[in-house]
Design brief:
With 226 residues, the chain is α+β, with helices and mostly antiparallel strands. Helices cover 16% and strands 34% of the residues. It has one domain: Fumarylacetoacetate hydrolase, domain 2. The structure holds manganese (II) ion.
């Protein structure tokens, strides 16, 4: 499995290894019940749905994320990110973990005002979600170092105050289920990243804010808004 040969326009740091070349970024919508409720949606187990961001939307850890244009309501969404070492289509749930290269912490940054307007009009979410610098990410911790993750506290603080708190075990669709389902929609490939959804507590950030995402065993993600 050579994850470095994927065609790419961006790469992400890997702890103690050569960089991970990013092929595509997939994101899962509403994968924690409390967050689905806070967005006014019904958290019953409807099939997972996905949106994407450009590969070059990644922002490396400890860098500044420029406050994007065309919004007055930039939101944070802290998420576990899964990086794929290999792909395929119609991957069975019980084989899905075999395709994971490693995990990272990510922020699915969202122009909430644009997303809300798009939702109201039944338009695509792309400009609310897939804008420049919208996908900050920590270094990837290889699976060989951390093992399979199924539970554990995911937390985001802004300027030192905790804003989001959840546990991976609260995901409506588990990581293997997400990989399996997504592989029935597209053929997954080495270099693909999957942002797996956010717990409740999403909210706005402004220029100068310092965001810090934490999960035991993963590199802490620290991003400032500039
Ligand atoms: Mn999200």
């Amino acid at each position: 499995m050579d994850y470095s040969i994927a065609p790419h326009v961006a790469s992400v740091e890997v702890l103690f290894r050569k960089p991970f070349c990013v092929r595509r970024i997939f994101c899962v919508g509403r994968n924690y019940a409390d967050h689905a409720r806070e967005m006014g949606a019904n958290p019953e187990r409807e099939p997972p749905f996905f949106f994407t961001k450009p590969a070059d939307a990644v922002v490396a850890n400890h860098k500044a994320m420029p406050y994007p244009p065309a919004t007055k309501n930039l939101h944070h969404e802290v998420e576990l990110v899964v990086a794929l070492a290999s792909g395929g289509h119609d991957i069975p749930v019980d084989k899905a973990n075999d395709h994971i290269f490693g995990y990272a912490l990510g922020l699915d940054m969202t122009r909430r005002d644009l997303q809300s307007a798009a939702k109201e009009k039944g338009q695509p979410w792309d400009m609310g979600k897939g804008f420049d610098h919208s996908a900050p990410i920590s270094a990837i911790t290889p699976l060989s170092m951390i093992g399979i993750l199924t539970a554990g506290p995911l937390q985001l603080s802004v300027n030192g105050a905790v804003r989001q708190k959840g546990d991976l075990s609260e995901m409506i669709w588990s990581v293997p289920e997400v990989i399996s389902y997504l592989s029935g929609l597209v053929e997954l490939a080495p270099g693909d990243l999957i942002y797996t959804g956010t717990p409740s507590g999403v909210g706005p950030v402004v220029k100068g804010d310092r965001l810090e995402a934490k999960f035991p065993g993963l590199e802490t993600l620290s991003i400032t808004i500039s």
